[in-house]
Design brief:
heterodimer; A: 171 residues; mainly alpha; 2 domains; B: 340 residues; two-stranded antiparallel sheet; 13 helices; 2 strands
């Protein structure tokens, strides 16, 4: 019962801050609401018993990535005059079409999984010889999900090299 | 009921109050030690040897006029000191001041909680603290605080990488992220990690100095260049909150270094039988003695070393500390695999 109350409270906060992120006029405030949002998502992870993921969520997203957002927002002056006139309806139409598409997709996925409970996503992993949260995450990453894990790290490496090449005028 | 609610609340109350008192007296200690280093007397007027000076300071800061600049971003300006202070205080939840002991026939642990991801919790909470500084600079709507806060955040992010990488090798040694677990591991392996991981110890100490914006890395507060730093526009109690956060962070860094490298609450050579009489001294006294040593080192360094230049600071962080941290990690990994 108390779990359910906590879950609904946290979810309401997450959704509320998410709405504030996109409705706030001041960009810096909007980034701050994003940080709050990430913190509440971390709290949701704690509620699920995933302390490791929660700590990483705060460390990487709230403490790392959003700091960079904040840098960009503060350094790039966003209070410039609006761009040359464009047909405002065109963008609105596109937005409407996209949101309807996403909604339909969500409805299909939701209906499908409601009608037929999905089978377990991955093959049952070998029983982890550890009990701790962190150890189990590590165990899964290096056994069942080794290839996705390595592919993700490769992708990050490529992104890092790309950023360095772009940032350096001459190498 | 008593074990689940009353005792944790009591512990939180004690730790928070003790921290705040310790922080105010750290300010006095710093003024005294620096004064002695410069052949002065330091505060002498309030109480014998200036012992009541922190109280006078607190009263002064509380009754000072609180000014918000007209062009400032009011909400963020108010939130920034709070955002700096809160992470500095909630970190104490996982710092182990001692093991489980028996008080009045009841088992009580001398830490608020021992979570599985203790060290990671400290690192992630500390990484949120940087917002206080960035936002203070931004919300003041003034040139120098903004410059200082950009400097500070670049510095914090750079050194965070080095410190976190270094901590990984300690975690590798201990095989756990729990703070209590790390102390136990040092007991079971018969060695303080300052001996097993001397390079990591130096890296974390240097990184800790930078993370707390202390001399010689106190560029965000370089008075000569920035007329004060990111808190230039702050006054009264809000300024005091930044000040308190800095000292609270110093205590956190000292406690973490003590726990990771000096065996936390353990006496020296905890497994040597002839030295077992050292257990007569309570565990938390050992912890406070070791932490106090590092706090003294912080002040000592400030009184001794000149400030780094900004490019030197960045070069030290990225070209010296991070490669050394990675090297240390690789060597630790190889040694650990070969020995097991």
């Amino acid at each position: 019962m108390s779990q359910a109350i906590a879950f609904y409270f946290l979810s309401a906060c997450i959704l509320g801050f998410a709405v504030l992120v996109i409705t706030t006029r001041d960009t810096v405030h909007s980034v701050l609401f994003l940080v709050l949002d990430f913190l509440f998502v971390a709290a949701l992870y704690v509620l699920l018993g995933a302390q490791f993921v929660a700590a990483i969520q705060i460390l990487v997203y709230a403490g790392g990535i959003v700091v960079l957002y904040l840098f960009v927002v503060m350094l790039v002056n966003l209070k410039r005059p609006p761009e040359a006139h464009q047909d405002p309806h065109r963008r609105t139409n596109w937005g409407l079409a996209l949101s309807v598409a996403v909604l339909v997709e969500l409805a299909i996925v939701g209906g499908y999984s409601y009608a037929r409970p999905a089978p377990a996503f991955a093959a049952p992993s070998p029983a982890a010889p550890f009990t701790g949260n962190t150890e189990q995450v590590g165990w899964l990453l290096y056994t069942s999900y080794l290839i996705p894990f390595e592919v993700a790290s490769m992708l990050l490496l490529v992104a890092m090299i790309g950023a360095i090449v772009l940032a350096k005028r001459e190498l | 009921m008593v074990d689940a609610v009353v005792i944790p609340l009591l512990k939180i109350l004690i730790v928070l109050n003790a921290t705040l008192v310790a922080v105010t007296y750290m300010v006095l200690l710093e003024r005294k030690v620096i004064a002695w280093a410069q052949s002065r007397l330091g505060p002498m007027r309030v109480g014998p040897y200036g012992i009541l000076q922190p109280i006078a300071d607190a009263v002064k800061l509380m009754i000072k006029e609180d000014i918000t600049p007209v062009r400032a971003d009011k909400w963020v300006f108010t939130a920034a000191p709070i955002i700096s202070m809160v992470p500095a205080l909630i970190v104490y939840a996982v710092i182990p001041f001692g093991p489980k002991i028996t008080i009045f026939g009841r088992q009580v642990s001398l830490y608020i909680t021992d979570i599985n991801v203790g060290l990671l919790y400290i690192v992630s909470v500390a990484s949120v603290g940087v917002y206080g500084i960035i936002l203070a600079g931004y919300a003041s709507n003034s040139k120098f605080p903004l410059l200082a806060s950009l400097r500070a955040s670049a510095q914090l992010i750079s050194y965070e990488v080095a410190v976190t990488l270094t901590l990984v090798s300690v975690i590798l040694m201990a095989g756990t992220l729990s703070m209590v677990g790390i102390v136990d591991a040092q007991y079971n392996q018969h060695v303080w990690y300052v001996i097993a991981q001397p390079l990591a110890f130096v890296l974390v100490l240097v990184g800790g100095l930078a993370e707390t914006n202390r001399a010689p890395f106190d560029l965000p507060e370089a008075e000569q260049e920035l007329t004060g730093g990111f808190h230039t526009e702050y006054s009264g109690m809000r300024f005091a909150l930044f000040f308190l956060a800095e000292y609270a962070n110093m205590i956190v860094v000292s406690s973490v270094v003590t726990t990771l490298f000096l065996g936390g609450w353990l006496p020296p050579f905890p497994n040597t039988a002839p030295l077992h009489f050292l257990y007569a001294i309570p565990s938390w006294v050992w912890f406070f003695l070791k932490s106090f040593f590092f706090l003294y080192v912080f002040i000592w360094v400030r009184a001794t070393l000149p400030r780094y230049r900004y490019d030197q600071l960045m070069r030290l962080g990225w070209k010296v500390l991070i490669p050394l941290a990675i090297l240390n990690l690789v060597v630790t990994g190889i040694v650990k695999v070969m020995l097991l």
